[in-house]
């Protein structure tokens, strides 16, 4: 490690700049970091890891990971995969539970240490992705109440609504021009209510029909739609990875997801004070991104990511904690259903959504499953 310090010192201009001891840096990190050797013995733990595991460094030095967790814990699988593939793998929403340890929903990142074959560096955190997942899970409950309401609305509102719309249309053709405007207003507002009810109906708990979907076709479809309508004034950038495999998804629902995110981005950059409104669509492949499959101990790989980024003012602070809940909006005419629908669809696909927002840069990142051999056989 002193070689690292020497090099960093050189990079920082040599004389006068000295970095602290790397062990001290590791110790000061507020994130639990653990180094396991090839036999899963605790070679190094930082202070945050001692607190996280509830055991002192001295105590841990006598232990192996097997002493803390049962052998079927998915963390062992992650560690073996890191050793086998020699790449960094992150696992979200892990439960580290045993008589000694009670940690749920933890994100663990495992990295190989090429200098020490068999060693694995584990970084554990209640990371933003895990929190996003929490929000999604919490949101599912909310979505369910919307489902019930949507069914009632569809039943009780849609029929009389079509009557109102029809009557307004009849009036339009028989009244004078002054009143025609009013009749048109009734028709337009009836349409708006129908659209809202239609959107709420999308929360239904129907099984989704999936096929192999080319994510770039979905993105391009939405981009063209946006640029010929609500985003005509906005500059789009596409940073696509052309080698991506197809995602295992319902195409129409993915379009709905991307459309809602692009629409939000377009609305964000249309606000006053945004000088060069821009939306960037990025795709890529990332190894080792996995989440738990609800109701099983299995893990689902989510190697494909899509990022929708804008340079608007960012998500208002007060609504961030409730972002994915239905009816949360900061817009005078917004329904607040867009993001809750997005989270529901992504959740139904077994995917994950992360948000990172600050003034001038808001990013919604989707992690999606790709077609596997098993899916292709279906
Ligand atoms: N890219 C973004 N930049 C800034 N704020 C955003 C962004 N995306 C969403 N938001 C905030 O999140 C809120 C909720 O978004 P959501 O799409 O769920 O509803 P909405 O856009 O207000 O209404 P709807 O989508 O139903 O027309 C928005 O009102 C806005 O305050
Ligand atoms: Mg919206």
- What oligomeric state is this? single chain
Give the biggest sheet. Answer: 7 strands, mixed
C-alpha-based Rg, rounded: 26 Å
The total of beta strands comes to: 14
**Distance between the first and last residues' Cα:** 51 Å
Structural class: alpha+beta
Shape: elongated
How would you summarize this macromolecular structure in one to three sentences?
This protein has about 375 residues and is α+β, with helices and mostly antiparallel strands.
Supply the key terms.
elongated; alpha+beta; 42% helix; Beta-Lactamase; Heat Shock Protein 90; 5-stranded mixed sheet; 378 residues; 14 strands; binds magnesium ion; Helix Hairpins; disordered N terminus; binds adenosine-5'-triphosphate
Account of the protein in words:
It is a single chain. This protein has 378 residues and is an alpha+beta fold. The protein folds into 3 domains: 31-126, 2-Layer Sandwich (Beta-Lactamase); 141-201, Helix Hairpins (Orthogonal Bundle); 211-377, Histidine kinase-like ATPase, C-terminal domain (Heat Shock Protein 90), CATH 3.30.565. 42% of the residues lie in helices and 22% in strands. It has 11 helices and 14 strands. Strands 2-1-5-4-3-10-11 form a 7-stranded mixed beta sheet, sandwiched between helices. Strands 7-9-12-14-13 form a 5-stranded mixed beta sheet. Strands 6-8 form a two-stranded antiparallel sheet. Mean pLDDT is 84; it is low at 1-17. The structure holds adenosine-5'-triphosphate (ATP) and magnesium ion. Adenosine-5'-triphosphate binds at residues 260, 264-265, 268, 310, 312, 314-316, 319, 323, 328-331, 334-340, 362.
């Amino acid at each position: 490690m002193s070689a690292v310090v020497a090099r960093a010192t050189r990079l920082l201009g040599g004389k006068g700049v000295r970095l602290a001891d790397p062990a001290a840096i590791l110790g000061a990190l507020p994130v639990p970091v653990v180094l396991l050797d090839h036999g899963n013995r605790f070679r190094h733990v930082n202070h945050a890891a001692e607190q996280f595991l509830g055991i002192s460094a001295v105590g841990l030095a006598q232990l192996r990971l097997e002493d803390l967790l049962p052998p079927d814990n998915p963390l062992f699988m992650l560690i073996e995969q890191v050793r086998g593939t020699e790449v960094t793998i992150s696992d979200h929403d892990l439960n580290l539970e045993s008589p000694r340890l009670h940690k749920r929903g933890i994100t663990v990142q495992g990295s190989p240490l090429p200098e020490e074959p068999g060693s694995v560096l584990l970084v554990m955190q209640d990371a933003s992705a895990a929190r996003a997942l929490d929000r999604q899970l919490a949101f599912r409950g909310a979505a369910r109440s919307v489902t019930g309401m949507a069914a009632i609305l569809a039943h009780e509102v849609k029929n009389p609504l079509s009557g109102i719309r029809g009557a307004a249309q009849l009036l339009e053709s028989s009244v004078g021009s002054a009143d025609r405007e009013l009749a048109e207003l009734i028709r337009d507002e009836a349409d708006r209510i129908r659209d809202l009810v239609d959107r709420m109906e999308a929360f239904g708990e129907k099984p989704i029909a999936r096929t192999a979907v080319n994510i770039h076709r979905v993105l391009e479809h939405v981009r063209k739609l946006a640029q010929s309508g609500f985003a005509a004034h906005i500059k789009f950038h596409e940073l696509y990875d052309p080698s991506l495999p197809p995602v295992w998804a319902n195409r129409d629902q993915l379009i709905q997801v991307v459309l809602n995110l692009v629409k939000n981005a377009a609305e964000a950059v249309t606000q006053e004070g945004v000088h060069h409104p821009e939306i960037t669509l990025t795709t890529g492949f990332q190894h080792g991104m996995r989440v738990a499959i609800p109701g099983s101990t299995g893990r689902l790989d989510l190697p494909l990511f899509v990022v929708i980024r804008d340079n608007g003012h960012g998500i208002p602070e007060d609504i961030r904690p409730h972002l994915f809940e239905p009816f949360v909006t900061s817009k005078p005419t917004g329904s607040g259903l867009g993001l809750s629908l997005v989270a529901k669809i992504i959740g139904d696909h077994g995917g994950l959504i992360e948000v990172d927002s600050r003034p001038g840069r808001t990013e919604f990142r989707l992690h999606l499953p790709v077609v596997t051999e098993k899916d292709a056989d279906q």
